[in-house]
Amino acid sequence: xxxxxxxxxxxxxxxxxxxxxxxxxxxxxxxxxxxxxxxxxxxxxxxxxxxxxxxxxxxxxxxxxxxxxxxxxxxxxxxxxxxxxxxxxxxxxxxxxxxxxxxxxxxxxxxxxxxxxxxxxxxxxxxxxxxxxxxxxxxxxxxxxxxxxxxxxxxxxxxxxxxxxxxxxxxxxxxxxxxxxxxxxxxxxxxxxxxxxxxxxxxxxxxxxxxxxxxxxxxxxxxxxxxxxxxxxxxxxxxxxxxxxxxxxxxxxxxxxxxxxxxxxxxxxxxxxxxxxxxxxxx
Amino acid sequence: xxxxxxxxxxxxxxxxxxxxxxxxxxxxxxxxxxxxxxxxxxxxxxxxxxxxxxxxxxxxxxxxxxxxxxxxxxxxxxxxxxxxxxxxxxxxxxxxxxxxxxxxxxxxxxxxxxxxxxxxxxxxxxxxxxxxxxxxxxxxxxxxxxxxxxxxxxxxxxxxxxxxxxxxxxxxxxxxxxxxxxxxxxxxxx
Lengths: 283, 190
Description:
The structure holds two protein chains of two kinds. Chain A contains eleven helices and eight strands. By secondary structure, chain A is mostly helical. In chain A, the strands form four sheets. In chain A, strands 1-6 form a two-stranded antiparallel ribbon. Chain A has a two-stranded antiparallel ribbon with strand order 2-3. Chain A has a two-stranded antiparallel sheet with strand order 4-5. In chain A, α3 packs antiparallel against α7, α4 packs antiparallel against α5 and α4 packs antiparallel against α6. The longest helix of chain A has 24 residues. Chain A is elongated. The C terminus of chain A is likely disordered. Chain B is mainly α. Chain B contains five helices and no strands. In chain B, α1 packs antiparallel against α2 and α1 packs antiparallel against α5. The longest helix of chain B has 36 residues. Classes of the chains: A mainly alpha, B mainly alpha.
């Protein structure tokens, strides 16, 4: 998880606080492991890149030889001045970079696979909505088998802990059935909500710069669009946050604050979930 | 689940923000400034002595790059201040305006700097910079300008300067690559 977070600092990242999405994705080791594995890989040294780097090095060597043999100071200075390009080319191989399609598919498939795995795994469910559990007793819930619709690859999740309140909503628009669930994000205000009892966490990547935006609205409750069955929050891409959603590491400078807030939130939640279970979950 | 959580105060600057920003800026400074300095070292002490067309162009190029980094950092800080203000006060609007303006200026500067860099090298290698104006020490000398026709006595000095500049550039590249490697390695996490 930490590896994924570190590698995802090169791209726009959002932390959803949609409760249904939060509750529908189990944090298991496999889920975080898979996210971490698939989203923390670096660029690989292909033969083409090696050849390009070698050409640059050879050219630099020629410039050096030329300057030392014939006293061409101009060529020497120019060769040195272009060295940053070599550093950047190699540096781009070291930082993880992803394509838009990859960013869309990896979290979604990981979520789906994790839900499938959770059908056989036993996981603990503690929510503030659920019945109060006597202290010291641990409550285990076996997840229901999700219906996998083969046509549109949608997985519907009906969590036990949500059935009473959100049954009708879940039937209509389960978060995982929504391919564009990353749009349903609001601003980062997760720790107080999640502290109240969610033991699940979802991170959505927003590769779609034009559609998904970190909302500046304070409304914590996403609304359901009845026509498209999509969760959405009215969002506006302003001049101020426009650069944050561009999918190159060049624009990291505009994302740094939001990214650090997100990291702090996630780490807080993970600490709460793993370290202080008895205080948070089993009141 | 309470659907209306209490209004909480947004953290304006998350912990580690300034460390990250200035760390990244320092790396950019090391690479850009160090390499530019190494290139300028070759040019300054040999004829034409002092700031001539080439060295001044290099310095302007490197300084513009550093200036762009500082502009983007300022813009980021102001944008964060603006977006954490809940009410549309004067401060919120003003900081947003300044942040957007700085961002656009930095993009414009980066574009012109890059284009100018390439154009400069085109001029340089097409011997356009070998005119009287650039070969004489124009900047800072005024009427005392002179032009050097032969480099007879300068050969050893040029060679030493080349060695110094190469070592310096290699050092800065090494520092940059090592720090980038250290900072970009994901930790082992299970």
